[in-house]
Amino acid sequence: MNLLFAEDDPVIGSAVTQGLLEQGHRCDWVKDGAEALALAQSHQYDIYLFDILLPSKSGLELISELRNRGDRSPILLLTALGTIEERVVGLNSGADDYLVKPFAFSELLARLQAISRRSSYRPAPQMNWGDLSLDLTNRRVHRGSVEIELTPTEFSIFEMLLRHAGQIVTRKMLCEHLWNTDWEGETNVIEVHMNRLRNKLERTGSRAPIQTVRGKGYVLGNE
């Protein structure tokens, strides 16, 4: 993986960069948000790893600018802000996942690998649901001729629902699909991504076909 890492804490920055290099990955580490944006605009990265609290530009500002430019590369957000509300803000800004400090390097690596798999998975050329089409080669979604811009995580969730259309997809199934784990301690994260996916689908047409089955999970409704 080729990563852009923005972190102003020298201890965390050095340790994470060294760990990634030892695992065979490339990592450009910067300590400033403006510098991170400049590199993102001039280089191609597989994954962005951003701390929220950065000089010049915050991690949230970076995410907003990159997504507005059409950059769909996966983003993992590092945060010392531990409340659910604060994490929701990060996910709603366009991040694919978050990790709360302090963290174990092994968990960071696992999450990076998980979002990398989600963004590069190529199982079939195209799937359709009503007037919605999923281009699985380029990982794009269209309603008719209108493209719906989804993050890699949102795309993976919608793909999972479509592959199990008419069946309940549990939160546990989604956790296993997204993060290769059955850990359900962060199901609120699933709900945040699901709400964001629904909103994006609804902005381009009628009510989103994703229904919540209380206490069980989600189901893709009638075409």
From TrEMBL:
Pfam families: Response_reg, Trans_reg_C. GO terms for biological process: regulation of DNA-templated transcription. Residues 2-116 form the Response regulatory domain. One of its GO terms (molecular function) is phosphorelay response regulator activity. The modification 4-aspartylphosphate is found at residue 51. Residues 124-222 form the OmpR/PhoB-type domain. The keyword Cytoplasm does not apply. This is Uncharacterized protein.
